[in-house]
Structure formats: structure tokens, C-alpha cells
């Protein structure tokens, strides 16, 4: 306990805790119920006149955020999830012995107050307290009233305090919930069936990434937290479902940045008898729907940039985007050696002679183009070497029918015309195994059961994945992914 009593404020609050305990007051009662949310009361009595008072008395509850005494009276405010209301209590109405208990309440305590409603001389709707109860004693001090909680690392680590100190943070997560609800509503109206697939996989697959490994004791086998649900969702297309989606967590054992968290939320969508062009239209419609319902407009400002979600979004092949935004023309006749020399000449240090033609094209794109794609833009016709789950383009087998959508220089989603040829898929998995043998820990793994599933027949299909966290960043004007994840992954502290 001594470690908790770190300063005078904490010591005083603990003394009040002891006072209540010694006087038979439960510091953490289990039986309190309130009658209404504060916001509902404020709306209900909005028209209450200056000389009027409500006939009904209600129990309200919330955190004590301010109080001030004037001898035999006391004013203050309590705040719940919906809003804040002023209270007023008089010693002559509740009695001197009872009043002294109220005075022992500290800022930060959760309290319940019961009374009728009236307007003060300043016109503020107020509850005139007739009864009260301690709901939960606060021991730690609240963040400073005017300075709040400013240490960014501490805000992420102690999100519970961040939510108290910074109301806009609460609004961010309310908006996040609305965005997910809007997407779910939209997909359901489009006749997509929401499903759930395993979070623990016997084989780490569905995307190129390093997995987290765990172990099942009873079965004595290693399992992998899922990198992506793709291969399970496509098994459902094999099984006869035609339109499915899942909104859930993925886990990738990778670095942390303003765009990346090891645990993140994705929506993946699969539709039979469709292709990547259908997924383009669906993606436009999803962003349109969320923008209109959330903001009432198809134009939105993010980090000072005006973003327009008017259809159609810009469309460029990856090669066209490199020529437009990097000034590098990649001729179709160029081989890997030609492109390597161009990359090195342009100062792209990560270029390696061992890279394939497609890997070099993708590297140039990531290094010199991505950050320039501010308006919603579809980049399509990706190199086959980096897209082992996509159908080849019928016009040129060196590329696949795949796109990624970018907004504000960030990839927001990825889509394919799904590969459904089991023999081609098996060959591509074998190529990925060779990459792993060469040291690429992020290469895809062989999933023999998925190959078997394809042998039962899967119709042509379009697949789409959208990063929910990045979409929330966009529509809450948040600069970092950690701002939109309630409890982001952080380094251990030395405390």
C-alpha cells in the first residue's frame, strides 16, 4: 500500500477512503442502479422554466468532476458517458451529519445523486440533491483540469486515463464503432453473409508476413495466430457460399509504426462469379457509404489535405503510376537487369540483383510512388511474383488481376481476381517454399488442404481486404494507428 501513496493528493484520498470504511460506508458497493443517462435528462427538461422544478426525482450517477463549497451549500458536476450535469446540495435539506459525508467525496469518485431538477440563476439545469451514495472510490488523482494528459506514450499505455482527460479520444472510438456498424450494415444489405473463421491456424497462410506462434498443449502442436482469413473464406466459396465477409483481427509479427500494429482489424470479402473490377466498384461504394453517412459529404479533410470520395476513383497500372509519379519509364521489353540498373541509378538502395523483375517494379513503386497517392487511387496490374494468390492477367501473364487502393499515401485495401486453378496454385506455393528456403521468412506457406479444396472446384471469385484501422484513421483525422486502437501494442517499460 505504501507504494500507492505517492503524493499528498493520493494520501488525502486514501484518508477519505478510510473515513468511509470506518463509518460503515461501502467504498465499492455492488448494488447501485441509476434511473437515467444525463443526456436524456438534459433533453427531457430542456424546456423547464426558471421558476419550475420537476415533480419526479431520479437517481443519476457518474464521475465527480468538480465541486465547490459555500458554507452550508455545495455545487459541482458529475459526468457519465452521455454528458455532464450540475448538482446542488444544501445542509439544511439533507442534515448536517449526512452533509459531512458528501464533503468527503473527492474529484474522480463515482457517485450517485437523487433529486429533482430546476434551473439556477445562471439558467443551468441542475439536480437538487436529496439523497446520495458513493458508487466507487477513486484513489489516484485525475489529470490536471486544463493540461490533461499530454504525454503521448503514457496516453496509449494508460488509455483509461486518456479517455477521462481527453474527450476527443472518446469521440474517436465512438466514431470507430459507427464506421464498423456502417460497413456491416452496407455489406448485409448487399446480401453478403457475415461469417467467422479460425483465429488459430495449423498453417500460417493467406498473406506474406511473419506469424505469431503458440502451442496447444493437449494436441501437442504448434498453432499460428492468423495472418489473414483468406484461405478459410475461400474454402466457404468452394462449399457453396457465394458472398461472404468477415470483420475481425489479424496478427503479424512485424514492426510497429504510425501505420502498423501487430494486432489489427481487417474486413475480408469474397464474392463468387466476380472479379477484381467488381471489387473496385464495391470498394468505391463502401468508402462512399461511410463518407456520406458519417460526414454528410463525399469530401473530407485529412491532416490538412482535402480528400474527395466522388466516383470514379483514379485508376492506374503500377507501371503507369511509376512513370507518372516517379518519372521512370519501364518498358515492357525490359528485364530484371535493366530495371535493377534504373533503380540503382535513381538511388533506390534496397534494389538487389537477386530480385525478380516484378519485385523490382514493386520496390520502385513503394519507394517513389506510394506517398504521392493522396486522392483515392486504384493501382492495378501488379507483378505476378508478389501476388501468389491472384489470377494472371490474360493480356500479360507477368502481371495479375489485382489492385490496391491508396488514400493519403497509404494502402487502404487489397483485392484480386482469385486464383482457382489448383495446379497453378500448388506451383506458386512451391515457388514460395523456395523463397522461404532462401531466407524469406514472410513468404507464403504450403497449405495442402487448401489445394485439396480447390480440387473440388471453386467458381471464379473476387476477393477484397480493407484495413479498418486505417479507415478509422482517415475518418477521425488521426495521424497514427495507435490513436484508433484502444490498447495498442507497446514496448515494455522498466517500471
Automatic annotation (TrEMBL):
InterPro entries assigned to the protein according to its UniProt record, in alphabetical order: Aa-tRNA-synt_II (IPR004364), aa-tRNA-synth_II (IPR006195), aa-tRNA-synth_II/BPL/LPL (IPR045864), Lys-tRNA-ligase_II (IPR002313), Lys-tRNA-ligase_II_N (IPR044136), Lys-tRNA-synth_II_C (IPR018149), NA-bd_OB-fold (IPR012340), NA-bd_OB_tRNA (IPR004365)
Pfam families: tRNA-synt_2, tRNA_anti-codon
Oligomer status and interactors: Homodimer.
Family classification: Belongs to the class-II aminoacyl-tRNA synthetase family.
Binding site for Mg(2+) 1: 404, 411
Cellular component GO terms, alphabetical: cytosol
Chief localisation class: cytoplasm
Catalytic reaction(s) noted: tRNA(Lys) + L-lysine + ATP = L-lysyl-tRNA(Lys) + AMP + diphosphate
A GO biological-process term: lysyl-tRNA aminoacylation
Cofactor note: Binds 3 Mg(2+) ions per subunit.
Enzyme Commission code: 6.1.1.6
The protein's name: Lysine--tRNA ligase
Binding-site residues, Mg(2+) 2: 411
Record lineage: Bacteria, Candidatus Muiribacteriota, Candidatus Muiribacteriia, Candidatus Muiribacteriales, Candidatus Muiribacteriaceae
HAMAP family: Lys_tRNA_synth_class2
NCBIfam families named among the record's database cross-references: lysS_bact, PRK00484.1
Keywords assigned by UniProt, alphabetized: Aminoacyl-tRNA synthetase, ATP-binding, Cytoplasm, Ligase, Magnesium, Metal-binding, Nucleotide-binding, Protein biosynthesis
